[in-house]
Design goal:
Shape: extended
Structural class: alpha+beta
Helix content: 40-55%
Distance between the termini: 24 Å
Largest sheet: 3 strands, antiparallel
Length: 62
């Protein structure tokens, strides 16, 4: 899945916690607030996606 405008960012999001809520801010005015559980699941999904993408790039380069 890609962004509607196909923009790819190389800037990482910023993450902080306030009053039991995780807040993610980043490129293109991303501003998301998550429960701790949703943030944990999102972080696992992001890591899985990152590893998959790295593998795709590695095998595409060979």
């Amino acid at each position: 899945m890609t962004n509607p405008d196909d923009q790819i960012y190389d800037e990482a999001s910023r993450v902080d916690a306030e009053e039991g809520v995780v807040r993610q801010t980043g490129p293109d005015n991303v501003d998301v607030r998550l429960t701790p559980g949703a943030a944990e699941e999102t972080s696992e999904r992001l890591l899985e996606g990152a590893m998959k993408a790295r593998g795709q790039r590695y095998f595409d380069d060979n």
